[in-house]
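Have a close read of this protein, sequence plus structure tokens, and explain what the tokens say about the fold. Thanks in advance:
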Amino acid sequence: QVQLVESGGGLVQAGGSLRLSCANSGRTFSPYAMGWFRQAPGKEREFVARIRWGTGSTTYTDSVKGRFTISRDNVKSTVYLQMNSLKPEDTAVYYCAAGIISGAGYDYWGQGTPVTVSS
């Protein structure tokens, strides 16, 4: 069974940085893509970034472009989200997810790691 485990969340001041990690602690698998999502209090979960595992190509939501960077380590089966110039509106629980088949959504989700950005 695939088990995604996020880490790296915490409390940071506006303008600061955090690096989130998402590792697979379960059986080995080859995702088509892995992504980061976030859910702020009282809001729906939203897409943040995605990386195609094979090609490394990335996609970001507009609000984080130029500030966040998604990357992967194929050997460690880990995906990262480097978050710079954090803003209070980035406060949310961040989730990683893995999709096995292109266009079929995400099949596996982590439990989430909270990020709080103070002003």
